[in-house]
Amino acid sequence: MSGDWLPATVIDADWPIPTGRSLWVRVDGWPGNLAGQHVDVRLTAEDGYRAERSYSISTHGPSPVLEFAVDELPDGEVSPYLVHDIEVGDRFEVRGPVGRYFVWEPQQTGPVQLIAGGSGIVPLMAMARARRDSGSDAPFRLLYSVRGEPYAYFAEELEQLRDERFAIDWVYTKRAPEGWHRPPGRIDRELLAELVIPAEERPAVYLCGPTPFVEVAANLLVDLGHDPSRIRTERFGG
């Protein structure tokens, strides 16, 4: 990781979900990043007050253009500004890339199980894109848990990535689409046993989401026989 703060300029932004925003920023001097790494963001107010937060990156490779997603926390210090106020052309600072533990690289050829809750899809999206861009045929499976269809980041792109070696399973916790084959509900042992690559195949598991989601899922996976050393987690929130 570079220890220097680098200038970042917002070059595009959109609203992929009602409560979150995707930002594309160009970072002068960015060294590139691996799929799954994150970045520190620093905002400086006119009075000199500074606030820092970390955000996962959904892009990978040497490009100086990064994409990350921000969910609004109503009582947050940084996210409301990034979601509602920042505009194309605005500048802030970033530092990174951060983290070598929660990464996937194309030379990894074994099966990969991705499990995301909400905006926890962001670093896993980088892994899915890295798989596509490298031409890897490593078997991937994604389980993506969201409140409902409007709250799914990257939904259209994910469906385009689906193939015979990349399975995608959607789980809706609050409201499922009309006619959906499974009623809304949170993940449980039975669901993971059905939708996750079996433990005997020894998948590398990447699990990201809110802390309670990650803790429950990780414990259930161990209970299902998955090797704890093969379960890598990233979490956010309290």
UniProtKB/TrEMBL annotation:
Do you know which InterPro entries this protein is assigned to?
Answer: Cbr1-like_FAD-bd_dom, FAD-bd_FR_type, FNR_nucleotide-bd, MRET, OxRdtase_FAD/NAD-bd, Riboflavin_synthase-like_b-brl
List UniProt keywords, sorted A-Z. 2Fe-2S, Iron, Iron-sulfur, Metal-binding
Name the PROSITE patterns on file.
FAD_FR
Q: Which residues form the FAD-binding FR-type domain?
A: 3-104
Q: Per its UniProt entry, which superkingdom is the organism in?
A: Bacteria
Q: Does the keyword Lipid metabolism apply?
A: no
Cofactor(s) listed: FAD
Q: Which GO terms describe its molecular function?
A: 2 iron, 2 sulfur cluster binding; oxidoreductase activity
Read off the Pfam families from this record. FAD_binding_6 (PF00970), NAD_binding_1 (PF00175)
This one is known as: Oxidoreductase
